[in-house]
Specification:
Layout: H1 2-41, H2 46-72, H3 83-95, H4 97-123
Length: 133
Amino acid sequence: MLRNTASMLNRAERKRRFIRALQRACQRHDLIVQLYQRLAAQAPTEQHEQILLNLAAAEASHQRRYARALRSLHANPTYQVSLLDRLWLWLLPHCGIDLTMRWIAWVERRDMKAVREATLLVMAAPSGRGRAR
């Protein structure tokens, strides 16, 4: 009975970590959408503006996908913007498009890695069979 309880807690912790990784990715995509929109507002040409708005729309689509995944897990997406995120949202558009795009790529890689690791953690089923007692 005790092993089953520990196993259940372990699975619950895995699910909690997976949900948290999805929530962070969803939240960061909201930030990325806002960054693209701010860059679009500063774009030197209409063509650049349209490209940035298209990127914002693509990121919004990714965010909706994360939100759907969270709802299927009976979890809510979080849309709280931290003080640090607000700082990035203010600072990066002033730093230029190159730096902002690099930051966005870095954040997306980091979030994808976190989601991938959390997915693997959830999929790894603990096995009580074959253990030495």
